[in-house]
Design brief:
- The chain is α/β, with parallel strands linked by helices.
- The chain has one domain: Alpha-Beta Complex (Protein-Tyrosine Phosphatase, Chain A).
- Helix content is 29%, strand content 22%.
- Strand 9 and strand 10 form a beta hairpin.
- Helix 3 crosses helix 4.
- The protein is globular.
- The chain starts with 8 loop residues before the first strand and ends with a helix.
């Protein structure tokens, strides 16, 4: 189990319980850019939705499936099709509104479902939010290092409210996306990128054990390098070195 850092954990002011396994994580532009957490459990779904409403979250990112390799990874905390709303402890209801697949303007194998939900928590007005489920990101692994992660992040990059991001433990897949987002914000500000280890230390100081293995750390590098190359930030003289890194990356992540 991964501990929840106490200094920056989300404290619930709604519902019966004040505790949830979730941390605020800052970015260069926003001290509460994300709420990073483990996947909701059967007994924490009500706390999860209380947090979403309390923080006025408009975007939820799910990077795991309910079950993977015959193991439960996350509780079924939201309705995935039309029908009766899901009801949780404390008379909290979550209603399905619409669902569509995220359309990419380029070829990719990434599969991301976007579900619009309406959440009712007693004492609050009805809350609408978008739920993004990356369906095919493997546990402890990496998806193809194409432009899909950056296009995905761009869907909610301007959100002023905290973006809730979770996988199963809330450190591997989730940490990879948070680190990637952090680096992209550095670039967008016009600053020079430092070593990724500097940014990883900053993320881990806010969410313990973020980025679970070498493959995920390399994945962040490869996505960034592909972006910098495609957008002309890097001189063509570096192309041979970039191709060598790409070949090494494929070898290191084969099977992940």
């Amino acid at each position: 189990d991964v501990g929840c850092l106490d200094t920056n954990r989300v404290i619930l002011a709604v519902g019966k319980c004040t505790y949830i396994h979730a941390n605020y994580v800052a970015s260069p532009s926003n001290p509460r850019k994300c709420i990073v957490m483990k996947g909701p459990l059967p007994h924490t779904c009500s706390e999860f939705w209380c947090m979403v409403v309390q923080e006025e979250t408009k975007n939820i990112v799910m990077l795991c499936n309910l079950s993977e390799q015959n193991a439960s990874k996350c509780a079924e905390y939201y309705p995935r099709e039309a029908g009766e709303p899901m009801v949780f402890e404390g008379d909290i209801t979550v209603q399905f509104k619409t669902k569509e697949m995220l359309k990419f303007p380029f070829e990719t194998t990434a599969v991301i479902e976007v579900t619009t939900l309406e959440v009712s928590v007693p004492g609050f007005s009805m809350h609408s939010c978008s739920h993004y489920h990356w369906v095919d990101w493997p546990d402890r692994g990496v998806p193809p290092a194409d432009m899909a992660p950056l296009y995905f992040l761009n869907q909610f990059s301007n959100s002023r409210e905290p973006i809730v991001i979770h996988c199963s433990a809330g450190i591997g897949r989730t940490g990879s996306m948070v680190l990637l987002q952090y680096a992209m914000e550095v670039l967008e500000k016009g600053d020079v990128l430092k070593s990724m280890s500097v940014y990883l230390d900053e993320v881990r100081a806010q969410r313990s054990c973020s980025v679970q293995n070498e493959q995920q750390y390399l994945f962040v590098h490869q996505v960034l390098l592909n972006f910098l190359q495609k957008t002309g930030w890097l001189p063509q003289s570096l192309d041979p070195a970039l191709e060598a890194f790409r070949k090494s990356y494929r070898k290191q992540t084969k099977g992940f």
